[in-house]
Specification:
two-stranded antiparallel ribbon; about 140 residues; Rossmann fold; five-stranded parallel sheet; globular; alpha/beta
């Protein structure tokens, strides 16, 4: 497929659709403690009756709150629409690259330690932006 302006618009529209109305969501760094920040995304999806597939990613858990867990991003099925990433800032860039390998188009990132933390954090933020652009993955957060 040629990379025409029309195709670019279609790709952006597809990514936006998958972000706003995902059929499946992976939660990277999901905690079995639903009261922790890393447990809340799963808690809220379950409480609000999300109907799509949910994939909590936790290498130490078989299931979390009755939802089957997967040990890592590579173990996800193809076609996941959105990833919620709840990890330390230092792990975000490598995680985004792994998500891109699975062709997950959008990541919602819950992490601090980027531009608000000074020069080192700003450098990490810039590196993440460049990696996301190269991998063609959109980041919110």
């Amino acid at each position: 497929m040629q990379d025409t302006p029309a195709n670019q618009v279609d790709q952006q529209a597809n990514a936006l659709q998958r972000m706003l109305q995902p059929n499946s969501i992976a939660i990277v760094g999901a905690s079995s403690d639903l009261n922790k920040v890393s447990g809340r995304p799963l808690k809220y999806l379950l409480e609000k009756g999300y109907k799509g597939a949910i994939y909590p990613i936790n290498p130490k858990a078989k299931d979390i709150a009755g939802v089957a867990a997967v040990p890592d991003i590579a173990s996800l099925p193809d076609g996941v629409d959105l990833a919620v990433v709840v990890l330390p800032a230092e792990q975000i860039e490598a995680t985004v690259i792994e998500l891109a390998k699975k062709k997950i188009p959008v990541a919602v990132v819950f992490a601090s330690g980027f531009g608000e933390m000074g020069a080192e954090g700003k450098a990490m933020e810039t590196s993440l932006q460049q990696a996301a652009q190269k991998a063609d993955i959109r980041i919110l957060g």
